[in-house]
Every structure is written in C-alpha cells, then in structure tokens.
Write a structure and sequence with these properties.
By secondary structure, the protein is of the alpha/beta class. The chain has six helices and 16 strands. The strands form two sheets. The chain has a nine-stranded mixed beta sheet with strand order 2-1-10-11-12-13-14-15-16, with no helix packed on it. Strands 3-4-5-6-7-8-9 form a seven-stranded mixed beta sheet. Keywords: Signal.
Length: 257
C-alpha cells in the first residue's frame, strides 16, 4: 500500500492510493555476507556497503536493499541477493536495465514514474512507481519518497521538480535518507530525526560541498555520507560541519571513478 501526501501550504493530508498486490515479503537464505560500516538500531545493525558512485547496498536483518544498482552483474558478484531495489531516477548512472535484468530476481522494485515507464514488461510486473510525497512499505520496511531536484537557476534542466525521488527508510528505530540527485530542497531542510544521510555533491548536476555543509547544519543528520561526489573537494566538509553530525568519508570510487 502506498499513501500519497498532498502538500498544501506546508500542511500534509493523507489519502490512500491502492496499487493492488502490495509487496511480497522475501526472506531469503543467503550464504553471501555484506561487509561495511555498521550502524546499530534497537532491532539489529544496519550495514552500509558502498558499490560505486551512486550505487550502494543497505543490509538490515534478512534484507539487502539495492539502491540505484548499475554497472553490470559482475559488480555485484559475491554480494547477497537483492530483497528490494530502490531507483531514484532515470539517468544512466542510477538506472540500467541490463543490470536490473541480471540481478533483480523477484525482488520488488520501487522507483519513480519515469523509470517505471521505461522498464521492460517482466521487471515492470514487480515494480511500483512512487511520486514525491508517497508513503508505503517494502518487505515491511516503512518507506517514503521525497523530492529530489535542482534548485539553482541554470541547473534545473538536470533534475526538474517532481521527477526524481529521494527515499526515507525506517530501519528499526533509525531513519535513513538517500537523497538521490538533488540540491537542498525545502523538504530536505525541514527534516528532523535523520540517523543517516547519503548526500550527493558534484557540479553541475547536484550540490556543491558548501551547499551540502549548509544543509547538513540545518537538518542535522546524526551521520552523513557524501556520495555521488565525482572529483569534488570534500575537505570543506571536515571543517564546515557542526558537532551534531558525524562525517563519514568513504571511497565511493573503488574502480578509479
């Protein structure tokens, strides 16, 4: 079930949007293990596994959530099978049909309408399109789609308003924010209680490190991971971020970018 929030003058009203079928819970016995940073929750650890650029995996209990998987099946060899897949938008560094066909199995796929419309029929059958403001769940994990778009004049053509999604996932007692390709939006800046945030920062497509630092100091996630950063100089973050947030700089480009 997905619930759509209609935003009117800053107020949210909920209406039920039936999608039929819902999401099937997939509890897979997996021999492969996921390595990476661990973040404790009251119901078990979250594991953060960077893949490359904007692609990452989140492990939680028996769930392995693939986010924007691209790069072909070989990039995911030896990793646990996907139990769910989230796709933020249709650019080629976030969405690749051959990769999905190779790794998706029967995992439910959540994406935006643009990507949903581009999926081949077999994948579309296991996919759901969420719009900005929709709430739902995937395999019992609460999920919200939030706006992801440019805000600076001259960059709007890269990520127009209302097309791309960021995602909020509630894992145990922690809320994880995967921003997708975006600059700071009013919705981002108004967030509270974010345990982990993945923020992009490369020009001209997303935000600058300076914009990211200002946003971080506004919505104050407990932990922030810069990702999708290309050749951006991230050193500004080390001095610009306040004490409320732990900065975790990780190598998101293991293959050299």
């Amino acid at each position: 079930m997905v619930r759509r929030r209609e935003m009117v003058a800053g107020m949210a009203t909920l209406s039920l949007l039936s999608l039929g079928g819902g999401f099937a819970t997939t509890a897979l016995a997996q021999e492969a293990t996921l390595d990476g940073d661990t973040i404790p929750t009251a119901q078990g650890d979250i594991t953060v596994h960077p893949v490359d650029h904007a692609s990452l995996l989140l492990g939680y209990g028996d769930q392995t959530i693939y986010i924007d998987p691209v790069g072909g099946a070989e990039r995911y060899a030896g990793l646990p099978a996907a139990t769910a897949i989230l796709i933020t938008h249709g650019h080629g560094d976030h969405f690749d049909v051959p990769t999905l066909e190779a790794i998706a199995g029967d995992a439910p796929i959540i994406t935006n309408q643009d990507v949903f419309d581009k999926l081949p029929e077999a994948l579309r059958a296991q996919a759901t399109a969420m719009a900005n403001g929709d709430d739902g769940d995937i395999n019992g994990i609460a999920l919200s789609a939030v706006p992801a778009h440019n805000t600076t004049e001259g960059r709007m053509r890269y990520h127009p308003v209302g097309v791309g999604n960021g995602y909020l996932l509630t894992l145990g007692d922690k809320v994880v924010y995967v921003a997708g390709d975006t600059e700071p939006t009013p919705e981002m800046l108004a967030m509270t209680g974010i345990a982990v945030a993945f923020l992009p920062m490369n020009l001209p497509y997303t935000m600058t490190p300076e914009q990211a630092a200002e946003a971080i100091n506004t919505f104050k996630p407990a932990i922030v991971y810069p990702y999708h950063y290309g050749e951006s100089d991230l050193s500004v973050l080390e001095t610009a971020i306040g004490a409320d947030t732990e900065l975790r700089l990780r190598n998101w480009y293991p293959n050299g970018g």
